[in-house]
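User: Second chain of the day. Same drill as before.
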Amino acid sequence: MAAAFDLQAHRGGRGLAPESTLAAFRNAIALGVTTLETDLAVTSDGVLVLSHEPRLNPDLVRDRDGRWLDAVGPTIKSLSLAELKTYDIGRLNPATRYGKQFPTQKAVDGERFPTLAELYAAAGPDVHFNIETKVDPTKPDETIDPLRFARMTVDAIRAARMEKRTTIQSFDWRPLIEAKRLAPEIDTVCLTIESQNMNTVAGSPSPWMAGLDVNSGRSLQQLVQLAGCSAWSPFWRNVNSASVAEAHELGLKVIPWTVNNPTDMAALIDLKVDGLITDYPDRGLAVLAEKGLKPR
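Assistant: Same format as last time:
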């Protein structure tokens, strides 16, 4: 029997369908993916919705007249759910640099920002969810307070009875620690990246790590454990055999993000990672088949 592997469709698989839409999530499920990865925002009337950006993104948002936004729009937290639902997110703007990154994405005009409740309702009984509380400690005015964000997320998961099928992830570890305090039964995932453009680990301490400090003499994996996370989700280029081995010794799963090249996927699997997050779940499924693995 093939071993199980946690292949996750990033934003529903944005390489194939419009990101963070019900169309994308349904497509991923139809392909055979069993974990859907997505991001959360909160509307002005307190509804959890799915969006990677805290503001309306002109690369993928059209107004009620079908026109692309000509600049970054308002924050989602300033819009009611009814107002947010007037925008179409069913295709990328082909004139933008971002829109050109995903030439195989198939447009589905008329798609709206989904709520978390709508995602739960659209998925079958075997689907798991990895949801991100999208908070940036360097931009506190763009989202709601991280502790309130954690409370709302926990309440929504419990209301849907999805505690055993949902993990909460974040680059900002503050909501993760709060979620674990409120709901020990819900697994949390510590996200990290160490690159020239963004580094959530550097600093003494980093503003992203809830006061935990890599300069304290503890390794990053030990800090992930101290934060209460059951999994560590690093940028895929930051993974090596030693970091995976140390995480496993501490009882942590390792699920790198976001890897899209099949050769890179295969190399990470050879490092014994526990899962992968990808924009192209079709490619991921093909690699798993070659490796004798199956999505969990």
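The first helix runs from residue 22 to 31.

User: Great, on to the next one.
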